[in-house]
Amino acid sequence: MKYKRILLKLSGEALMGSRQHGIDPARLKEYATEIKQVTDKGIQVAIVIGGGNIFRGVAGASNGMDRVQGDYMGMLATMINSLALQSALEEEGIHTRLQSAITMEAIAEPFIRRRAVRHLEKGRVVIFGAGTGNPYFTTDSAAVLRAIEITADVILKGTRVDGIYTADPEKDASASKFDHITFDEVMEKGLKVMDMTAFTLSQENKLPIIVFDMNKKGNLFRVVSGENVGTIVTN
Ligand code: UDP
């Protein structure tokens, strides 16, 4: 196995499966099975999940809602997804802990870095909910921040495309995929991997990002074992 401690970032939208919003239980189960394949190998797994399938702060603001209020709603949405993922993982027999950036003591531990690391060392999957706990950030930023804090080897950004392309492959048929790209090249070419805050935080801390297709069976395992899947961004 190439990586020993990973931070897996999943978007909220990925949980919708074929639905228009909310959570598709079948998709959730698929993800739990994928994650089990790597925890069975002794890989330490931390997860940050988005909330876009339920609520996005910007969407609220565009309808006249206070942006900060909307962002807090978005952070709560990530907690709903985190709880759903936690129970799907537990169904697979995986030990988990959920830590929230906003105190919700009845349902999650508060985020405590040292405790999170200890859980990982004991083989528990740690889910980080409520993003960074701050409005105007995204769960991509939360993923990078937590990955740095727990000294993860890599961020695995599970998406529905199989990597970073020269152009949007869903719109441009001539787009070609990169196997490897540097942070500088992503900037120069104006490609979108994560939002700028998350991206530069990752670059400054020399934390590699792998973008890969999480919906393809066995892919998470392949990435972790070091197979050339998706696109890797490094310094
Ligand atoms: N959010 C926030 N601070 C954070 C993380 C998330 O305010 O640190 C809010 C923000 O409103 C965002 C929403 O939570 O739109 C859902 O997160 P995100 O859009 O990153 O989810 P994804 O696109 O990955 O599903």
TrEMBL record:
Pathway membership, UniProt: Pyrimidine metabolism; CTP biosynthesis via de novo pathway; UDP from UMP (UMPK route): step 1/1
Catalytic activity entry: UMP + ATP = UDP + ADP
Keyword Chaperone annotated: no
Enzyme Commission code(s) on record: 2.7.4.22
Keyword annotations: ATP-binding, Cytoplasm, Kinase, Nucleotide-binding, Pyrimidine biosynthesis, Transferase
InterPro entries: AceGlu_kinase-like_sf, Asp/Glu/Uridylate_kinase, Uridylate_kinase, Uridylate_kinase_bac
GO cellular component, one term: cytoplasm
Stretches assigned to the Aspartate/glutamate/uridylate kinase domain: 4-213
GO terms assigned for molecular function: ATP binding; UMP kinase activity
Main function: Catalyzes the reversible phosphorylation of UMP to UDP.
UniProt subunit comment: Homohexamer.
Protein name in UniProt: Uridylate kinase
Lineage: Bacteria, Pseudomonadati, Bacteroidota, Flavobacteriia, Flavobacteriales
